[in-house]
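Hey team,

Filing this mostly as a record. A colleague (T.K.) asked me to run one chain through the structure pipeline before their review meeting, and I want the input and output archived in the tracker in case anyone asks later how it was produced. No errors, nothing strange. Just documentation.

Input sequence:
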Amino acid sequence: MPIVKVIEVIASSEKSFDDAIKNAVKEVSKTIRNIDSVFIKDQKVHVKDGKISSYGVICKVSFRVDD
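Output structure:
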């Protein structure tokens, strides 16, 4: 029976929430294999001078552990 591990990561983007999620997956993929899913736990934006300056996400990344 496969074991699934979950880690929590924070990522950001100046473009969009979608881009922030892609950045999270891209960075985690550098050191973690067998990623199954990403659950978005929370989202936020940073505001500067009345405009959104960046988008942030807190993600739970699930991956299968090798035997």
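Quick notes for T.K.: The longest strand covers residues 51-65. Strands lie at 3-13, 35-48, 51-65.
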